[in-house]
Write a structure and sequence with these properties.
Elements lengths: L7 E8 L5 H14 L6 H14 L3 E3 L2 E2 L2 E3 L7 E11 L9 E9 L3 H14 L3 H9 L3 H9 L2
Parallel strand pairs: 1-5, 3-6, 4-6
Antiparallel strand pairs: 2-3, 5-6
Helix pairs in contact: 1-2
């Protein structure tokens, strides 16, 4: 079984403070930068902003999975953001998401497809969604994700 924990650092799980998706993505990209991996994070953010204006990354009600390749990044990295109030600024003006799984794709395209498939399956699991919603802190959210 593919474990998401292999691609996720505790520093990359955050409670989001931004109300708009572009700003929330900035928070999550900042978390990835803080993890110290050298890559073109500025280009990654620019690509994400463009894609978010053109298409929806919403997987299911309240959950988004924006993703893009990061030049210079060797391995896939995840950042997870949660917003109790919800993040707007999506192509559908009335839509809001409460969980954002940001996927920074490294050199291995096939690996990304396995991770994306696993994420898509997991976020449709009622038990996990309940656990993620009930986690009182970002640290607790990370601990829940460690189980998967």
């Amino acid at each position: 079984m593919l474990e998401l924990a292999h691609h996720l650092s505790p520093h990359c799980v955050r409670d989001l403070h931004s109300a708009a998706l572009g700003d929330a993505l900035g928070e999550l990209v900042g978390a990835l930068v803080e993890c110290g991996e050298r890559a073109d994070w500025k280009g990654f953010r620019s690509t994400l902003n463009t894609r978010c204006r053109e298409a929806s990354f919403v997987l299911d009600e309240g959950i988004a999975m924006p993703h893009a390749r990061v030049p210079g990044l060797d391995t896939l990295h995840l950042a997870v953001g949660r917003s109790a109030a919800g993040v707007g600024g999506l192509p559908d003006p009335g839509a809001r998401v409460h969980l954002v799984f940001l996927v920074a794709i490294g050199k291995e395209q096939a690996h990304y497809l396995r991770v994306a498939s696993r994420l898509a399956w997991l976020v449709r699991t009622p038990t996990l969604r309940e656990q993620l919603a009930a986690a009182p802190t970002a640290e607790a959210l990370y601990m829940v994700l460690q189980q998967y």
